[in-house]
Specification:
Layout: E1 3-8, E2 11-12, H1 19-24, E3 30-36, E4 38-39, E5 52-54, H2 55-58, H3 63-72, H4 77-85, E6 88-94, H5 96-109, E7 113-117, H6 120-123, H7 132-135, H8 140-154, E8 157-160, H9 163-171, E9 179-181, E10 202-206, H10 215-228, E11 233-237, H11 243-253, E12 257-261, H12 265-274, E13 277-280, H13 295-302, E14 307-310, E15 326-328, H14 333-344, H15 347-364, H16 367-382
Parallel strand pairs: 1-3, 1-6, 2-4, 3-5, 6-7, 7-8, 8-9, 10-11, 10-13, 11-12, 13-14, 14-15
Helix pairs in contact: 5-8, 10-11, 10-14
């Protein structure tokens, strides 16, 4: 009989975090149950109902009561009884923020706590931690920063999704011996290209339309690219608070472009199967917010799609210049344009990088293999 792991994420679950259930549903010797205080405010990713326990489904949870519960862990014995009945072996929280809120839960259930850090949760500058769009209303940002030190001390393990995130954890005070680098990876069977399809003259972008994704620099680059190769079209998949500004920028400077909004995973895979290349121009934003290692890079590489990325966070851990892709400096639209034109004009280089990148994903970023390593980590912690 498999052991139970409580997968804790305070809000269950935005579509931008589908990498969490992708990992959990690969477990072979453990069973993951999803727990959180509330459901995500917008469209929720459909988690298995029989393995999802949301506090707000069984109790009235005003904003004040939720803040009090997150800050103290007190109250709602009925929910804790439901969690206890699962006999969880440990809690695995995703993002440092949820890890801090899971501390009192782990204590009440008397189980170890594992926390995966993905990016903003360890890279944001302390002075910018009052961002309610990320941390929630006051005093939650201050509680998070204060308790993060306690989290480093009391968590059994802190998982970094890249070597870059490991370095950030150490810089913020996490003991190095408590850190494990565990790449999440992608399902190499699901993300398998159809090599019979012809590539189209499309430069693809997939991601939230927020500052750290760097889409404005891609639009800037595409203006120069289309001056040299007007047949190349920019296709943007995703949504976010910068969408209107980015569409206005594209309208003023580009000849061919499309903004498709949020698309299903199947639709994204279809675009990855027919685009000429993916561009991932991520940057460190004004608050220090950085990527960990964007799953989109790995999905594209698995799909035999060449990737132009920025020299940012964990991206160079997946893209080796001239071998598995091409890299440009952050915020350098001119250099980004040069890299896009290099790929566009050299089919041999695209093919070479695509083959090497697919092989690298199979060996290093394989979701099934990496989840097996995660389960081995659980074994060690529980022994």
């Amino acid at each position: 009989m498999s052991k139970t792991i409580l997968i804790y994420r305070d809000e269950l679950l935005p579509y931008s975090e589908t990498f969490i259930p992708a990992q959990v549903e690969q477990y072979s010797r453990y069973t993951g149950f999803y727990a959180g205080t509330s459901r995500h405010r917008k469209a929720n990713y459909p988690l298995p109902k029989e393995r999802t326990l949301v506090l707000s489904d069984i109790a009235k949870l005003s904003e004040k009561r939720k803040i009090f519960f997150l800050a103290t862990g007190y109250g709602y014995p009925q929910w804790f009884e439901q969690l206890q009945q699962l006999s969880p072996s440990l809690i695995h929280a995703h993002f440092g923020l949820s890890g801090v809120w899971a501390l009192p839960i782990a204590k009440r259930l008397q189980v170890p706590l594992v926390v995966t850090f993905h990016g903003y949760d360890i890279t944001l500058n302390a002075w910018s931690a009052n961002r309610s769009d990320i941390y929630g209303p006051k005093p939650l940002p201050q509680v998070y920063l204060w308790r993060r030190k306690r989290l480093f001390k009391e968590a059994s393990c802190c998982i970094a999704v890249s070597e870059f995130i490991r370095s950030q954890l150490i810089a913020k005070g996490c003991p190095p011996e408590k850190i494990e680098v565990c790449y999440i990876g992608v399902d190499v069977e699901r993300f398998r290209p159809d090599l019979t399809l012809a590539r189209q003259p499309v430069v693809l972008f997939v991601g939230r339309l927020v500052e750290k994704k760097g889409c404005q620099y891609l639009i800037q680059a595409m203006a120069a690219v289309q001056s040299a190769m007007p047949e190349l079209e920019l296709v943007v998949i995703g949504d976010g608070k910068l969408r209107a500004d980015l569409e206005a920028q594209a309208k003023a400077s580009l000849q061919h472009y499309r903004f498709l909004g949020v698309q299903s995973s199947d639709a994204v895979r279809e675009w990855m199967n027919r685009a000429l290349m993916l561009c991932v121009p991520s940057v460190t934003d004004a608050t220090g917010n950085s990527e960990g290692l964007p799953i989109t890079v790995l999905e594209a590489q698995a799909m035999h799609l060449p990737v132009v990325g920025s020299i940012h966070a964990g991206i160079p851990e997946a893209i080796v210049e001239g071998e598995t892709g091409l890299l440009a400096e952050e915020r350098n639209g001119q250099q980004l344009a040069e890299k896009i034109l290099t790929f566009a004009g050299d089919e041999g280089l695209r093919e070479k990088c695509a083959i090497a990148a697919r092989q690298q994903v199979e060996q290093k970023f394989n979701l099934k293999q990496n989840t097996t390593q995660l389960e081995a980590l659980y074994d060690r912690l529980l022994s």
